[in-house]
Batch of 2 targets.
Target 1
Amino acid sequence: MPTASEVRARTGGKDIRHITFSESDIAKRVAEMGREITAYYPEGEELLVLGLLKGSFMFLADLVRQIERPLHVDFAVVASYGSGTVSSGDVKMVYDPSANLEGRHVLLVEDIIDSGNTINRLIPLLEQRGPRSLELCALLHKHVAKELVVEPRWVGFDAPREFLIGYGLDHSENYRHLPFIASL
Ligand code: IMP
Ligand code: MG
């Protein structure tokens, strides 16, 4: 575990409340998820792992190294717009994956499921492109979403209903580089 002064050196002086998931908790769980995902897709099948930027970049990088199947990596960027910090529920794809999804096993990788708006808007758009299968994998799930169009098949951790940072997750673009997940 990093000391408080090591944390402050990385955050620019800001203290964090507590480390929710340590670097080793994450590594252990991501390795398990990689084994579960490998077991789910029959040998010989090829996957398209589609990461949602920016939040999933670190998780995706670690996860794909634990999947023992042939795969391609692509990314999508979605923006939810509306005023303030409350998601309006409107989601727009601002970077559309160049990969063709038709007939492919698509694994969508999300950092955290909170209200579910992102997933509820994005999944139908991806379904329209005719993937052979479309599964959702989320590192964190807050279990606050009332209704999800698709339940994630793989969840890293059930998350506390707190604002989390680190391991890809940001607060105003800060803290994505922290190797652990913490609550602000
Ligand atoms: P949803 O559309 O409300 O499910 O939220 C999904 C997106 O909101 C995630 O991909 C994150 O970018 C962001 N988000 C939700 N909760 C948190 C949090 O606790 N910390 C950082 N980002 C979050
Ligand atoms: Mg995000």
Target 2
Amino acid sequence: MKQENTPQDNLLASPSLLRKIDQLRERNIGQHVPLPQLVVVGDQSSGKSSLLESLTGIPFPRDVELCTRYATQITQRRDHSTHVNITIIPGPNSSDEHKSHVEAYHGSALSGEDLRAKFPAILQEVNARMGIRMSSSAKGGTVFSEDILKIEICGPKEDYLTVIDVPGIFRNSTEGVTTKQDILLVRNMVTHYIRDNRTIILAVLPCNIDIANQEILTLAEEYDKKGERTLGILTKPDLVPEASGKDTICSIVENKRKQLTLGYYVVRSRGADQDDSGYESREQMFNEDPWRRLDRGRVGVRALKTKLGELLGEMAKREFPKLRKDIGEMLSRAEKERDGLGPARGTDTEQRIFLSHIADKFQELTKASLEARYHHDPAFEASFHLKLATLMAFLAEDFSREFEEKAAFRYFENEDSDTDDYDDDDDDDEVVDEDFLPMNPNQTLPAANAKRILRAATRDLDPEEFPELDGIISDRYEVEDPEDDIMDWITNLYVRSRGMELGHYTNAVQASAWREQSSKWPIISRAFTSRAIMIVQRFITDTLSIVCPDSTLRDTLWSCIQEEVLERYKKATGFLEYLLSVEREINPYTLNKHFNRTRQEAHADRAASHILATLQEAEQAGGDNATVTIGQVRSSTRDKSNIQDVAEQLHDGLSSYYDVARKRFVDNVWTQVVQSHLLFGSNTPLRVFTQDWVIGLGAEQLDAIAGESSSVKEQRANLARKIKDLKEAKKILSF
Ligand code: GDP
Ligand code: MG
């Protein structure tokens, strides 16, 4: 095949702008932002490939069987050395397998000449790679492909020109060859290219077919409303036999028929059975009538090429500022996305530093929270649940009060059964309205509201929200008020279990009275400990999501520390059980001097109240100067039955002991179970995820937690490439 000679002088205007566009294209910027380009569209066999051949010198197959089955992008670029690169860009919907198969293809040629020689063989291979069905008799494969064949021709004499050849539009499917789906596929491919307003549409119209029937002009009009980027190219003028037909074509070129803003051009390409003569000899016909009358600027491939160069140059000029802006925006988006991925975690060291940094942040927040240094981090403003110190102080107070009010099974005699000292006010039965919680808990609130919020955040916790704590925390949170009639009960107890001792009760009676009186202690103290555990657990979860926003990483991290965290909660509840057993299962005894004092006081109070009653009786009977005789004082204790006397002693001893033990127990639960096991000790659940823990991780475990999934790695690599490309692009566009 002889070389098709093409007009190759520097026909293009603004070559520096076009060069820039090409440099951008080279850096794959076209994938991210549309770049000015030419696309050849038209019906099947309208002469698109032949036109491209005239424009670029590449001999496209013109065989009807081998009509264009995929988009071909031809880029010509000026370069000091001559070379041709051929690659396939996989279509957007390709499978990974297909993708790697077509991407593995790389064809090359030493020069345009070399390419021309190899071209049929290259196309064979490309078609095979894409899986194109080569002939109507062949089985398998597809008729059309969304893959793009990319041919890049570089050389010192090449123009900066990128043209895309797309399959021709057709309307009727052919039995056994093309389907309705193919029609749609091709149409979509075409519109994909012409939709973009940086695309110049070369609408190819064969002269031997009525131009009114050319759907492509309607399609182009649809996407290029103002007609600013549609150029009509009339082909096959040599196939118009009659003079009247030629005349019609001429008037179209003169833009007198179906008008286009950019007008029409007429070119003659090589016919199927025509020899290899150059364009000059073919275009001789334009010197004859009626073509002679046409403006030379509208006739022939040379004039067309000049016009295309101008158009591209104008478009480049017009689009550059916008392109610069687009690229700038895209760059900052990509950088943001990259920053969102955090630092790279490829190596062991990178992973350790990364995780260690997260652990450090976690511990810092924990420390600040325990010390109530809430100004330390804005996170505290956003969530009340992070304020551990405040929540725990409130919870502890609440526990202490509830214990005092409700923990005894029966009210002691000297107690006022409606202790309203602490009664938590007015709002006790009001339901806490969650909506009422302020977004910013630091905003000043009426004291009652603050109390409600604290109450909601500490008492109204739902164990169902902590399924992981199942089996660790209590399932009972409420207790009844104490019962009355303690003296009846004590008397009964004594009568039922007394031995033969003289006027005294046994240790056994005392012990069983004690056990019953303290029988609600486990419930209340377990409820308190459980609430404290839920608050700590919620703190850990919330804080982890702050220091580690990546949810996959967070989940893995949690699954690694979970066991140990739960173990430490169990230690706390275990310690509570220990304290309970110490208090309740060992016979009541104390060294506390307070015990004797209160018991004696109770005894004295009893005598005093008896005397007081006698005095009041005397006063009522005998007027102002009533007196109580020694005899009366003596009888105040002597007249009691033995049972009553012992019962009173038992009550007073129990009451005094209860008082001492309750204070001791409440304090112990707070300091030893909560403070030491849950909050401040070095073995609390809050101290599982530490830098030391990270340092102690084995390489494999570390990689399992902090290593990146292959998709993240790929994403990171893609972003890095994209950012590099866009930065380059910015540089190219800046001068
Ligand atoms: P495509 O399907 O639009 O790419 O059309 P082709 O470029 O493959 O052309 C279809 C047929 O028309 C081929 O046989 C070409 O040789 C022929 N052809 C294209 N342009 C001309 C032309 O200007 N004159 C003549 N006589 N034949 C042409
Ligand atoms: Mg074609």
